[in-house]
Amino acid sequence: MLFINDIMKNKKESALVLYKNARDLEFQKRYDEAAREYAAILKSYPLHIDASNRLMIVYRKLKAYRKEVAVINKAISAHEKETEKKQRAWIKSHQKIANLTRSLAETLGLLNSKGLPIYENDLLEKWRRRKSIVLGKLEKIK
């Protein structure tokens, strides 16, 4: 009988195999196949940064800008949701500290509209910049 740790280990190993296969396909310039592999990884692991980045690059090489924007949007959303989930869990487990510092954080403008700490992430900013470039390319195509 498989235990949950064994299942998780097998899933991670299969994601590594898929990623290696996708990279190999990409190096062979078989971009459509590589895109399918990267997408399969992201279906199971939406927070897989490397697969997200590589899929964006593959779509860029294919000039599939709409698909690239969709990947960027999904990646940003997945990471923002994960960050929010972690922040809420921390606040729940440290309620006393969170309550004591909330008014100061509000005064200093350190909370977002949901009352959670503003979180700046270089990776998300990079993806947002890329999104604006891709949207500009889509405008030129029209």
Please sum up the structure shown.
This protein has 142 residues and is mainly alpha-helical.
Task: Please describe what this structure looks like.
Helix 1 runs antiparallel to helix 2 (31-44), helix 2 runs antiparallel to helix 3 (49-61) and helix 4 packs antiparallel against helix 6 (122-141). This protein is mainly alpha-helical. The longest helix is centred in the middle third of the chain and has 29 residues, at 65-93. The radius of gyration is 19 Å and the shape is flat. The protein has helices at 4-27, 31-44, 49-61, 65-93, 95-107, 122-141. It has a single domain (4-141), classed as Serine Threonine Protein Phosphatase 5, Tetratricopeptide repeat (Alpha Horseshoe). Helix content is 80%, strand content 0%.
Explain the layout of strands and helices.
Elements lengths: L3 H24 L3 H14 L4 H13 L3 H29 L1 H13 L14 H20 L1
**What proportion of the residues is helical, as a percent range?**
over 70%
Unreliable residue runs: 1-8
Give the count of structural domains.
1
What is the tally of helical segments?
6
CATH topology value: Serine Threonine Protein Phosphatase 5, Tetratricopeptide repeat
> Which class in CATH terms?
Mainly Alpha
Question: Please, what is the average pLDDT?
Answer: 91
Major sheet description: none
Q: Class by helix and strand content? A: mainly alpha
Which descriptor suits the 3D outline?
flat
Estimated radius of gyration: 19 Å
What percentage of the residues does DSSP assign to strands (E)?
under 5%
β-strand number: 0
Please, what is the CATH homologous superfamily?
Tetratricopeptide repeat domain
Order of helices and strands: HHHHHH
Q: CATH architecture, please?
A: Alpha Horseshoe
Separation of the first and last Cα atoms: 56 Å
